[in-house]
Design brief:
3 helices; 66 residues; 0% strand; mainly alpha
Length: 66
């Protein structure tokens, strides 16, 4: 995680998204094991990560993780 925080703005943004997703998943699981909310948080993270990877490699499709 520290490496991401030392990088450029996009990497810092991804690191922030990872931290927020961790918090969302944790809160969802504490909320009576709200698995839908936990999975929604993970899916949002996957979308953000795909966008980051696509931007970084110039890939307009962004099909890295499904």
């Amino acid at each position: 995680m520290a490496m991401l925080q030392e990088g450029d703005g996009k990497e810092r943004g991804l690191a922030k998204n990872i931290q927020q997703s961790q918090q969302r998943v944790h809160e969802a699981l504490l909320d009576n094991l709200n698995s839908k909310a936990a999975l929604d948080a993970l899916l949002d993270l996957v979308k953000d990560t795909n966008k980051y990877l696509a931007d970084r490699q110039g890939n307009t499709q962004g099909q890295y993780i499904n």
